[in-house]
Design brief:
Helices cover about 50% and strands about 20% of the residues. By secondary structure, it is α+β, with helices and mostly antiparallel strands. It has two domains: about 120 residues, no CATH class; about 170 residues, CheC-like (Chemotaxis protein chec), CATH 3.40.1550. Helix 3 packs antiparallel against helix 4, helix 10 packs across helix 12 and helix 11 crosses helix 12. The radius of gyration is 22 Å and the shape is elongated.
Length: about 300
Amino acid sequence: MYAQFFGAYLLNQGAVSPEQLTEAIRSLSEARLKLGTLAMHHGLMTASEVEEVCFLQTREDKKFGEIAVERGYLSVAQVEGLLETQTPDYLLLGQSLVDLNILDNATLEDLLIDYQNTTEIYTAEDESNQASDELIEKFFKYANYPITKPAATYLRLLFNNLIRFIGPDYTPLSPVLSEEVAIDFCVTQEMIGNSNFVASIDMSQDSAIDFASRYAKMDFTEFDEYVQASLEDFLNLHNGLFAVNMSNEYSVELDLAPPFVEQNTVIALPPVSYVIPVIYPFGTINLIITIMEEEEEIEDF
């Protein structure tokens, strides 16, 4: 999940535009993480040293690691260790931005250091539920919106299910606290119980075709009842998994109402509703989340 939120961090820092980020996300399938980027990430080489080795590669028919060892920037053992290390996914997005000349290595180096310090990422393996919840809480904090533990738990599962069922090539934009929102094609489901949750996914019909095609693993070419059913099924599946988790982990029981659809209108939102745009290569989807709970319920989490 750090890769997806790295994109949001870059946007918040003004380091890239939404259009540049979308271009980089589309290029991820072709991006290959380079040894120099890994060396910078692990603090073994500076950006200027990486640039020097890359320049020398245009003059000598040698691999990056060979030249880095010759120049004394890396040892043979360090090169071998970098080639075998587990790589955090967000580095690949940074590499894609460099390959597209949107960022240079020096800028990427500074951004990586700040992102790691900001999110307190210390290991590539730190993708636990607790770490992911903390990442989401900080994501909302930077937007000046505090978020409760149940909301962070809900969104962590939702972002993970987007990765699992739709694809990892997305970036969430900063959440916006809203009282109303203009929607295109919006699927909504209520979860009623000790705490009440309302979740919606809104997108254009063209984006819905691509979203449904990925989810159903079918090639939909037009907007029809099958596309609508796929979006309803995704939301119902996700909310069902969340309800099971809430019951097992917190003894909070939730009943799911049937999903319903609204189109091309402006809908009023309950108090404390967040709209979170999520950029995919095929378009932007809006996650609309409302969580209404008793004060004592919040303290139980």
